[in-house]
Amino acid sequence: MTAEAAPAPRPAPDRSPGLRLLFALEAGRAAVFGRMPKSLTPYVFLLPAALLIGLLVAGMAYMVDQSFRELDRATFRLAEEWSLGNYATILDRLVYWKIIGRTVLAAVVVTAGALVLALPYAYAMVRTDSARVRKALLIGLFLPFFIGQVVRAYGWLIVLGNQGLVNATLGAVGIEPVKIIYTYPAVLIGLVQYMLPFAVLMLAPAVTAIPREVELASQSLGARWPSTLRHVILPMAKPGLVAAGVVVFTLTITDFAMPEIMGGGSNDFIASAIYDGFFAVADAGLGSALAVILVMLASLLVGVIFSLVGVGTLGYRQRRAA
Amino acid sequence: MSGSRSLKLTVWALVWFDLIFLAVPTVIILIASFTASEIIRFPPEGLSLRWYESILVEGGFREAFWRSFVVSVICTALAVPIGTLAAIALARYRLAFATTIQIYLLLPFTIPLIVSGLGLMLVFGEARVLGNLWPVGVATCAINIPFMIWSVGSSVNALDPDLEHAAANCGAPPLLTFATVTLPAVAPGVITGALLMFILAFNEFIVSLMLVDARIVTLPVLIYNSIRSVITPDLAAVSVVYILVAFIAIRVLDRLVGLEIFLKSR
Hints:
- Chain A contains 15 helices and two strands.
- Chain A is an all-alpha fold.
- Chain B has helices spanning about 5-35, 50-55, 60-90, 100-105, 105-110, 115-125, 135-155, 160-170, 175-205, 205-210, 220-225, 235-255.
- Chain B starts with a helix and ends in a 10-residue tail after the last helix.
- The longest helix of chain B has about 35 residues, at about 60-90.
- Classes of the chains: A mainly alpha, B mainly alpha.
């Protein structure tokens, strides 16, 4: 662009095709949005994303509506009028309490396991002096991260199956095969492995933010590493630990594929019960009510986590950004 | 904390455990895919490429692969403009109700996937568009769009607003400024986000499970359906496709923006 360009740009003959296209697009933009006040620009930018996410909100609204309609066993249609019948049915049945308990317990165990395993990995990856080691650790992390749950669960089936790697190895040294696959621990192993990359990726920036000098200072004041870990690393990595914990917790409590594939039908999570509500017993009302319970339970527990360890972490970030 | 030998030992012992733990399913799938026998056994009885041959000959997996590819392309093509615009709006403008807008944009992460999937099944069912592939692409885009916004957002913050003002001062109209100054500056974020969106859509399982029928089954759903019966080595060969795609994506990401950007503290 030359400095003396006119306010209303006109394509000059010597412009490249790309530039000419841009000017044509600009003319189109000016024709459509030219008279719009400038202050509306960001809202126009946000509109497509809002509409896209609106699809999910609409779906959620459908399910909330259905959750208040009981299935009429005579016609196999959902009732016209609203009631709390589906919720009462769920709270009344021990099997649903069992499923909810199993799911929440798994989420707690998996979150703890993933955080314990993720912290040293994130620490080593950030602190290593060798660029090649760092790259290797990053690739070791991203390769499983980019492979979906179904494929990874299939891998675990081969490892933990009755004639799988573990049992073949045990058999070779003369130990009776153990049943691992289709048990609760198998589901937990699969879930921790699935969540580990998420946890490391959420933790790494927090570890990066800890200045090495603070660690050295605590060391030169005579602290041994376990107390440096407890009094320096853990408090300073707290924003990352909370973020990673919340992500792993919510992903686990809502998981479907791992308990379905690794649990063999007897270790269902809430998501499986919702799915069965819709497709096995064809009671969309009951399934929807379970879905609403899952959403409320997940939000409630995340709220509890925040109130226990403090939302202060979020405030901290905002203050720094400001 | 550095320097102490017992610390180094502890950290690296755990790191090696993590590395093996992370790699086990992938490595075992690679080995199993070269099995010569009808079922997977350890140690494997002979090596062969027969299962790779069989998935190429058998049309089901090939078609499912292409359907997943189409879904991922639709998802990425939607996510790039939608996510880029939203990220720029969030990072560069003063918005009324900014917190509310941010919470709304994070809804795809807070609504459980099973609920999103069933909800979209109801919405698309009501619109009578189920049975096509494009709603699956739209759905995978909707559930993962925060990744795109986050990727672009982290590079918008690095862009110097004065550059845009300079372009405008020199007479560049808004769209020209956008295309020649803003976009190149956020390109690393756009590339990272696009790659994430593609990979996530290619692997997407649960929402697809709700939206596909037998005629338009995608690759993860087909693998899931096949797992239910006997564990045969052909699934291992199909899974290797995913390992290869993941590997290519990592190479591309590393070449274009460097994996290290994920370590940066924001």
